[in-house]
Each structure stands twice: as C-alpha cells, then as structure tokens.
Amino acid sequence: AHQCWSETLTLQPLLEGMLGYQPDAVAGKVHLCPALPPQWDSLRVTNLRIGQQRLSLQMQRQQDTTRYRLRLATDGHLQVELAPVLPPGTHISSVTWQGQPVAAVIDTTAQGWVQVKIEKELNRTGEMTIVHKGGVSMLPLTPQPQPGDESQGFRLLDARLVEGTYRLRFSGPAGTTHTFQVYSAQPLPEQASGARLIKQQGAIYTWQLTFDGREDYREKTVELGLNPKKE
Fold it and tell me: For the chain, where are the E strands, in sequence order?
C-alpha cells in the first residue's frame, strides 16, 4: 500500500539534506545548498514549494562543468541563494549566471568540501554554471548482507583532504577485510598507505583494506596522495 507518511519520511531528508532546501515564503526567498553524490551526472527535482510559487531544479554535470538550472512554474520572481557543495580538492575556474561572470563566495570546510555561493533574483528561469577541475570524495558505504550474515561493523570515522592527501579513517573488527570506493576527478596512485587498489572504472576507484589482529575493533587510516591533473 502507498502510505503518505512513508513518502514524507523519505522526501523530507532528501529535500533538507541533499538539496539544502530552506524556503522562506514570507520573504519570498529560498536557500538551496545541493550536496549531491559526485558520481551523479544529472538530477531533476520539481514542485519545490515557496509559498504560492513552485520551483524546479535541474543539475547536469560533465567532466569539468556543472550546471544548475532553476525554473519557476508561473510568472513571477524569487530571491535565490544558491550554494552548491563540491567534492574536496575541487578547484573553481569560473562561475557564471545566465552566461555572464558573477561574483561568488567560495568557502572550504575543514574536511575540504568546497561551497560556491551566489545570491540572485530569479525571474522565471536562471542558470548557474561552474567550471572546475579536480575533486575527490569517499562514496557512501553500502553493505549488502546475505541472510544469516552478522554485522561486520565496518565504519568510516573521518574523511578529509590535508595538503594534497585524502585521509580516511575507518574502524572494523580485527581480522576482517573490507572494500570501499572513492570518486576522483584526477588520477589516483595505484599504491596507497593502508589499502590496496583492486579495481578502477572511470573515476571510481575500489580499494581493499584489512584490519590486523585477532580480537576487538581496530582503527586504520588510509592515505591517498592526489596527482595533479595533467592539462
């Protein structure tokens, strides 16, 4: 059965989390801070409500360019604060709005995530284009247990970019082996401290690590050195 409560529980985290969707109907304003998985090349969301207005957002990503298109369902205008979040290590070359250069506020978090923010008045349609290069990000761990399997307790504790090294800290039971994936828009070395590369498919690198010992949980740090992207 289709239950409205389950739909609400599913969509609310999506809107507030991945899109950073914060409407202010009284002020006629909306804040959007899309933080989307780096391997996604497109996304389209419609019917975002700001008072009587309805807004759609479309993201299209190519290798070095990401576009965010906004469109109001009816004539009118809306104040928009658009602040996409890009993977750690991303270098911003240019930012435009409707094809024209625009001043943007660029911030970097302690973990290395890059946020590009502009504020504009949206008159029916608008497009923000970011030209960039580089960027690296750990992909979410997605266990696929089989019936009868016990929890493996493999967790990512921290991920951050420090002076050209992407540092990942994991925990897991001693004596176990696990895999994880990293997206990188620039080449990663075949050798890494703490892990072994077992597969590369495009920009997705699959690594394997083992927790030494026989008892208790252990922590392990993996360090991936980023190679400068060749022009």
Answer: 22-24, 29-32, 42-50, 53-61, 65-72, 77-82, 85-86, 91-97, 100-101, 105-108, 114-123, 125-133, 136-138, 155-162, 165-173, 177-184, 191-192, 195-201, 204-210, 217-225
